[in-house]
Amino acid sequence: MINDKDFDEQKFERAKALVGEELIKEDLKYVDCYIHKKMGLFIPSLGPCGYAKKELHTHPSYMFVIFFSDHEMPEEMSVRTREKQYPGAALAPDIPHNDNPFLNYYCIMIDKEYFEEEYKRYTDCKPDFKRKQFAVCHDILHALNMFVFEYSKNMPNAEITLDAQETILIHWLIRSLLGENYDMRSVSNNYAIARVQQYMEGHFAEKITVDSLAKLVNMSVSSFNRVFKKEIQVTPMDYLMELRLENSKKLLRRKEVPITEIAFRCGFNSSAHYAATFRKSCGITPTEYRKKYL
Q: How far is it, in rounded angstroms, from Cα 270 to Cα 260?
């Protein structure tokens, strides 16, 4: 939370530039604040944020909220998340909105010009978010906590490491917004298994068998199956199917690609097989997913 010792006037001015000129220190009385050059992280810890309680308030920056308490998530949040993911919402600058100030969440605010500059590295589309919902992997919370740790410890050359962490966090957010998130904890520490994962990522559309994967790392099929499941918690074929489905979702979000083509490009024998597998995993058909996303 704010106190005069660790939140000087310079940092408070940075906070105002992100949150809004009407911000006063009393608004952040119960909020843990970590303000760097282009980004601010705000975490309500002992109570609500006073600024969030203002009716139809706005922010000059891009705001990203990551909810880490399912039972207090807003009712309007409908984004489907998998295991090891959290739901998030994005809001562009200067859009009037109301917040529920009592939620458990991480609020990340990023300088408008800087975010748009980095976003252009990925797409020419304008980041015109109006409570855009997205899924983010658990790893980003670990990265945010590492940012907090580095910020709080004030270690030698902290500015350099905070600059690097700030850049990484912003790019992770952009990738998540574009459906490119990936849970780094699912990458095995076992090099043989990690090598197989890398191979599957690049060849998921091809015919892949457990036997061919075991040969890739010079293991017997039984040993490979056992080690893979121990490391990743799923079988190699279940992992492959998840890869195919996740990549198909990226194509579904591009409405110009026919569903039949998506099925074959993602390694399914037919569109019927793809539709049945997708529905079993996601609870809706590929067509319904596309309509819902668009």
A: 7
Q: Which of 16, 15, 13, 23 is nearest to 41 (CA)?
A: 15
| Edge-first strand listing for the sheet containing 85-91 | 31-35, 39-44, 105-110, 62-67, 85-91, 130-137
Note whether 133 and 79 are within 8 A (CB). Answer: yes
Please give the pLDDT value at position 76: 55
Structure tokens at 106: 């991480």
C-alpha span between 232 and 267 (Å, rounded): 21
Half-sphere exposure for 220 (CA within 13 Å, toward CB) = 3
pLDDT tens sequence across 162-174: 999 999 999 989 9
Which region among 9-13, 57-61, 138-142, 248-252 has the lowest average model confidence (pLDDT)? 138-142
Q: Residue 235 and residue 238: Cα distance in Å, rounded? A: 5
Closest by CA position to 239, among listed 82, 26, 97, 128: 82
Residue 54: burial class (beta carbons within 10 Å; 0-12, 13-18, 19+):
middle
Q: Are 48 and 1 in contact (CB under 8 A)?
A: no
The tens digit of pLDDT for each residue in 20-57 reads 999 998 988 888 899 999 999 998 877 888 888 889 99
pTM: 0.65
Tell me how far apart the alpha carbons of residues 227 and 234 are, in angstroms, rounded to a whole number. Answer: 10
Q: How far apart are CA 252 and CA 273, in angstroms?
A: 16
Report yes or no: 59 and 19 within 8 Å, Cβ to Cβ: yes
CA distance 294 to 249: 12
Mean pLDDT estimate for the chain: 85
pLDDT in tens, 250-266: 888 877 889 999 999 99
What is the Cα–Cα distance from 241 to 211, expressed in whole angstroms?
Answer: 16
